Structures are given as structure tokens and as C-alpha cells.
Amino acid sequence: GGQAGQGSRKAGLIIAKILNSLGYRIFIYDDYQSLIKGGHSFSKIRASEKKVLTQNKEIDFVLALDQETIDVNLIDLKEDGLVLFNSNRVNYENGIGIDIETIAKEEGGSSIMANTAMIAAFAKLVRIDFELFKKVFQKEIKRDLDVNLKIAEKAYAKVEEKIKIEKLNNKPLPLITGNEALSLGAIKAGLDIYYAYPMTPATGILHFLANHKLGVNTIQLENEISVIISALGSAYAGKRSMVGTSGGGFALMTEGISMAAMAEIPVVIVNSQRPGPATGVPTYSGQADLNFTLNAGHGDIVKFTIAPKDADECYEWGGRILNLAWKYQTPAVLLIDKEISESTFNLEVNKEIKKEDILLWDKEGEYKRYEFTENGVSPLAFPGDNAVVKTTSYEHDEYGLTVEENEEQIVKMQEKRLRKFEAMKEEVDQMEDAVKVYGKKDSKNVLITWGSSTGPSIEAAEDLDIKVVQIAVLEPFPDQIFNEIEEAEKIICVEQNALGQLAGLLAKNGIEAEELILKYSSRVITKEEIKDLLKEII
Amino acid sequence: MINLNTTCKNTWCPACGNFGILAAFKKAIENEDLNKIAITAGIGCHAKIADYLNINSFYSLHGRSIPAAEGIKLANPEMKVIVFTGDGDSLDEGIAHLIHAAKRNSDITVILHNNRLFALTTGQFTAVSVEGFKGKSTPMGAPESPLNPLELLLAANATFIARSYSGNIKHLEETIKKAMDHKGFSIVEVLEPCVSFFNTSEYYNKNTYVLEDKNLDSREEALSKIKEWDYTMEDKKIPLGIFYDIKKEEYHKRALINKKEETVEEILLELI
Fold it and tell me: What is the tens place of the pLDDT at every residue in A309-358?
């Protein structure tokens, strides 16, 4: 850790990549505040033999660019843990000091290159071969590589080996954030254009897509209202569009969700939660927008709301949700949070994602945008297709012309949408992974959870031999859950909000959670916290 | 010729200014490839035009006619996109979109039906209502002064600014054609009477006059033409015509620049 501007995030990523190349499975949690310089930021890197989806409370190594890193993190340091610190700024008698800023300066580097010295010093401390360090390092640092390598060599020479981190037999996997993973998944499903107004923690999607040449245009507009309405305009014209925001921006987008539902225009909205209400705690995490997301948009609306738990699921659902939105011509929300958006995971692609075909107009006869069909989904045509394509926010007839006087027509169009909602529900009920199960599958104690609460719940449940049920598709509500709780004697909800919003959704569907494990401190719930509370409950 | 009419019953009040705009627009697109035209509309009396024209249309939410049009243009730059909007729609609810679309030089044509009040909600003041306007929400007179929207759009760097009048269909048709031919953001403010709540027919018939098209690239002259009339109801001359017309690269050409040079698989390899 260090002050904002000292580059601790990049340093953390390089250390993680070194460990990744040794075959470790990685999880990085990045902690920062709403400021640009100063303050205190840190990356918490977990390296494990098997895949991990959440941070550990206890720490083995503290690498301190500044004093606060020690002050903040010492409390979680294990008894045999080690502290490596920047002796130009930090004073700590029980650690290993190294004058990284002096080294950087002596070798003609800038002050931010002190980072390089810190990474190299750590590599030596845990007996990582310099050549391996160099291989990873030069892939990550392109600018002033020679100076950086000189700094690294000098720091590497200055530190004594303490322990050895062994190489594992695992094959290294990509290191990716949830934001990046969902972007790539959406691209596999044919994403054409991404609209956004910057908002933490969703901004990473905009940055990632803008900084890669993947053929997806990124458009930043004046506010979230124009963002969603322009996305609808693009989808109407035939382009697969996605938008991303957090709760406050999502609030502005709700009129667009309602429009998309009425006009039956496909759009994917990524809502990455942070604690609210209002501006809340903008650079931290929470799950308090479930009720709001499920109820977003005025009028009778059923959309898709899908909550992946990690990067693998972000990649997969990022693609599948775009296909679903176009299959059913509906708004669809990918509901994640800061912990998933900005944490770094190892990615394993388990399911191939591709752009699926959609129901298109057969170009016979007169085009009716809202033609009545059995499942309520009408064939699509786009402007330029030699059809007159009329879309509207008003209740309408099959051609998309306003209907106000004709009551029967109003009912018929509403019922067309209801049939579509039924079809969407059937689709979800047939998914193998709308509901996922972990831990001891025949346990009578069942944790029901969603999104970023799932990772720590799984680890807690494995330790305590109980069952975890993750609801990945939250809307339409999947019937699969009823099979999973048939034998349950005690249902416990684990979620990161103050009102027990998932428990509320379960109650609405006739499932009563006996106990709630809630965390609403803005910091992510840990497996230790879940275990402690579970011991009192079961 | 293709029948531009739909099955919708027209519900504008008899003698509404919108009839003039509908007629002028139909004439203006007579020789256009209708397959390459899409219109958007917001919500208000103006917006019913989407129901009365048998062409591609996106009948949007109140205030959101412009972002819908910008999205269509970005998705398919071959389309000519025309926005129908009202003063309530884009000078009140959606004014941010209007300013930014002008600033970006989005290649859309905005036809602003300016009847100077909210009509469909039966008569409240808007950003361009006359000072002291007595509507249902302001029985003692509106406590605000009107905005000059064209002055605002000049400040926002709109590249084509014009004004016409629904009572001068020939002029309106020609102005719309020129606006549609302009590459980049164009606005045609159309003064129109609201025969039910603010009937300005007589006033506009008496005071409007058509300017000669000259020095259209002069910002100073544009400003002085724009400021000649200040949205009062006093006897002042109201210029119609093109006030400003300059060339600038369209937004979509500057924004749609992401070429596919990498694959997802390549990026995943890089991330190891």
C-alpha cells in the first residue's frame, strides 16, 4: 500500500502476475478513496493453490510504501508475517527496511519508480528468481525499462532471502477484473457500442473498452439519461448496445428502462453497486440496490436481472445477457458491485460465448414492428431494411402507432408483453446455472446468497460443512431454488445490505429465511465474519 | 409517390401550427430516399407527428428526442435523422441534450416546434414563454423571462442555425431542406401559434420577415440577427431565415474510431 499517486496498484498487479506465473491462483482487492493524490490506497493480494474468489482477513506480508500501510494493516498481520517497508519514509522496528526512494534516485529514476525497488525487494525476500521477475516485469513496464531494471537489480541485491515461495504445477490463467471480464463476454456476444457517463465502480468498463481496439465504439455523453436513450436509439437502428453505471446513474436511467420495456428495445445495463443511499461510500462495496434494480422502471415490467459472483461469471453472463436481451427484446441488468467490478480474479472460460441469431423480419409483406405472436416476441427489422420501423413509448398497435381510445387494443398489446414475460421465465427455469449450489449439498443448513457475498459464503460453508445456494438470475425468479431448499431445516441469507433485500425477494416467493447475516459497513464480508456468525446460529 | 399518411386520426386542434410543419416536412422529403430517413419525437403536441408520418420513427420520452436521434446516427451514419421536438421538450426537460448535441456537432436536424408554452398539458409556461405569461400554473404571470434559444445554440457552437414560421410553409420547407443538407448539427426553430392557449398567428404574420442568405459564416452577424427579436410580444421585427451555417467535421466521424485490431483471445493471453 501507499499514498494515492505512489502507484501501489500497479505494483500489486505486478506482484500478483509474478505469483500467477508460479501457478498460484490470485485474488486482488483494491482499496482506495475518492481522491487523486495522498490518502491511503492498498492492494490486498491473495495467492492460493486453488481458485479463490475473495480476500483473506489475515496477512502474510505487508509491503509499505508509506507509514499508513503499516498503521492500517498491522492488525491483520499474522504472527510470523513479514513487513517490508520504504525506509525513506517509514519507521518500523520489526520489519525490513529498504531505501527504495534513494535507490530509484541514484539510478536516475523518478520517485514513482521506488515501486520497482519494492517489488524487486519482495521477489528477493521470497526467493523468486530474478530472471522470472524480469520476464514478468518487462511485460508490464514498457516505459523507461532500462532505468527500472537497474533499480530492480540494485534493490534485489540489497535484501536477504527469508523464505521461499514454491512454484506450483498449475497453468497460469489470465488476471482480470469483473469489469474487464464482462466487457469481453459482451464482445463475444456481438457488442457494437458502449455508452457511459463516468461513475465508480463501473468506469473501468468504459476505460477498458476505450483503450482496446476490439471494434467496440465507446461513447461518453452528458448524463445517464442521454446514455440510455442513445443506447436505445442505436439498438433500434440494429446495433447491440450496452451501458454501465452505479446506483445514482442507474436512478437516472430508470425512465429509459421503462421506455425499453414499452418499446421492446434490447439493452444491457451494467449496474455496479456501491453503498448508498445517494452518493454513499463511493469507492467501496455493497449490495443495497437489489430492490431498486428489480423494481426499476414505471409500469408493468419484467426484465432480466442477473448477478454474477466473479470474473468467470461476468465473462459468461456479460455475453449471455446480451443474447437474452436481443432474443426477448428487453432491458436486462447485469447487477454487480465494487468488489466484483474492480477486484482481480483468475479467469477460466468454461462456456463458449457467441453472438446468437435473433428473430428477424422475413421481408414478406408489410412490416409490423409489434406483430402479435404466440410467445409475444415480434420479428425485428431496422431502419434501412426497406420496412417502415416505428417504435414508441406510447401504448401502440402492431404497427407501433399510438393507441389511446381502443381499450381492447391496449389490453391485447399488454397481453403480448405478458406472454413474452412468460417465455422469459420459462427460459430462466430451464437454465442449469440460474441457481448454483456449493458446499455440502445434503446439509439441512442452507445459506442463500447472491453476487459478491457468494465467494466468502462458499469458503465459510466448506469449512463448516453446510450448503450454499447462489441465485444468479434474480429476475425472472428461478423455480430451481425450490428443489434446492426442499430438505432445508434452516435457511440463512447472506448479503451486504442493511434491510435483507434478498430475504425480501425470497419472502415474496414464499421462502422464509430464518436468519439473516447482513453486513453494511461498505467493506466486503469475509469468510471469518460469516463463520463467526454461523457458529452462533447453527 | 409513397403514401406518407398513417391510419392514425389527427388530433391536433383545427388551425394548429403543427399542420404547417407537417405539410412543409412532407414536401421537404419528397425527393429523399425514405428508407434512409428516421425521425424522432419527444412528448408533446409536436410529437404526434411521429404517428402521422408513415416513415421510420422513434417516438421517445419527454425531453429525449435528441439522444434517441444521436444513437440512431451513431449506429447507422447512413441515415438522415430528423428530430421533432418542442420548446417544453428540448428547452425545458431536455435542454442539456440540445446543448451537447450542438456542441458535439451531431449530424442531426432538429426541428423545434416553438409554440412558447406547454400545450398538451393545457397551458403552462416554458423557457421561451413571454414574460408575465398567464397560464394555469402562473395565474399572476410567469415569474421568469424568456430564453433566446438560438443565442444559446450559437454559444454552444451549433453549425447551422435557422428560424422559420409555421405560417410560411414555403419558407419552412426550403429551410428544412437546407438544414437536412447541412453536414453536422442543424436547428430550425419554427415559430408556431398555439391556437388554443397562446394564439400568436396575427403577431407573427405581422412581424416576421424573411432575411436574405448572406454572410452565413459570420458569428457576429449571426448574433445580431438572432438578437434582433427578444421573444417579447411587442411590435418588433422577427427575422426568419438561416442565421449561421459553417462547416465542421461531424461528431460521428470523430467518435466512431474503434477499429477491430485485437481479439478477445489475444487480450486474454496478454492478461496472463
Answer: 999 999 999 999 999 999 999 999 999 999 999 999 999 998 899 999 99
A155, A100 contact by CB (below 8 A): yes
Q: What is the mean pLDDT of chain A?
A: 96
Q: Which domain holds residue B27?
A: 18-271
Q: Is A87 exposed, middle or buried (0-12, 13-18, 19+ CB in 10 A)?
A: middle
The complex scores an ipTM of: 0.98
Residues lower than pLDDT 70 in chain B: 1-2
In Å, how far from its chain's centre is CA A376? 32
Report yes or no: B166 and B20 within 8 Å, Cβ to Cβ. yes
Is residue A200 within 8 Å of residue A274, measured between CB atoms? yes
* pLDDT of A439 over the 60 cut: yes
Q: Is A252 on the interface with B (CB under 8 A)?
A: no
B200 touches B130 (CB < 8 A): no
Contacts of A497 (CB under 8 A, 6+ apart): A286, A287, A288, A290, A518, A520
Q: Are A26 and A176 in contact (CB under 8 A)?
A: no
Taking the CA atoms of A492, A496, A498 and A503 in sequence, report the sign of the dihedral they define: negative
Tell me how far apart the terminal alpha carbons of chain B are, to the nearest angstrom. Answer: 61
Quick one: closest CA in B to A401, which residue?
A: B51
Q: Tell me the β-bridge partners of A268.
A: A242, A332
First to last CA, chain A: 38
Phi/psi for A38 (5° steps) reads 85, -150
Contact (Cβ atoms closer than 8 angstroms) between residue B269 and residue B126: no
Q: Which residues in chain A touch residue B255, judged by CB atoms under 8 angstroms apart? A: 217, 219
Nearest to A160 by CA among A126, A117, A204, A208: A126
Residue B55 with chain A: CB contacts under 8 Å: 388
Q: Read off the pLDDT band of A538 (50, 70, 90).
A: confident
| Rg, Å, chain B Cα set | 19
For the segment A25-72, what is each residue's pLDDT rounded down to a tens digit? 999 999 998 888 888 899 999 999 999 999 989 999 999 999 999 999
Task: Answer yes or no: do B38 and A237 touch at CB < 8 A.
Answer: yes
Nearest to B94 by CA among B73, B74, B70, B120: B70
CATH of the domain at B155: 3.40.50.970
- Cross-strand pairs, B164: B190
Q: Do residues A268 and A183 touch, judged by C-beta distance below 8 A? A: no
Reported as a single tens digit per residue, the pLDDT across A356-365 is 999 999 999 9
Contacts of B68 in chain A (CB under 8 A): 229-230, 232-233, 236
> Is residue A392 pLDDT above 60, yes or no?
yes
Q: CB distance from A269 to chain B under 8 Å?
A: no
> Is B4 contained in some domain?
no
Using only the alpha carbons of chain A, give its radius of gyration: 25
Candidates A354, A390, A405, A406: best to mutate against B (most CBs of B within 10 A) is A390
Instruction: Decide if B12 is inside a domain.
Output: no
Q: What is the pLDDT of residue A298?
A: 98
Number of domains in chain B: 1
Q: Is residue B266, in this structure, part of any structural domain at all?
A: yes
What is the DSSP track for B60-111?
--TT-HHHHHHHHHHH-TTSEEEEEEEHIIIIIITHHHHHHHHHHT-S-EEE
- Which residue bears the cell 402492431? A398
How many CB atoms are closer than 10 A to CB B74? 27
Instruction: Find out whether A225 and A252 touch, Cβ atoms under 8 Å.
Output: yes
Q: Is B50 inside any structural domain?
A: yes
Residue B2's pLDDT is 67
DSSP string across A320-365: HHHHHHHHHT-EEEEEEEHHHHHSEEE----S---PPP--B----S
**Cross-chain Cβ contact B50/A390 below 8 Å:** yes
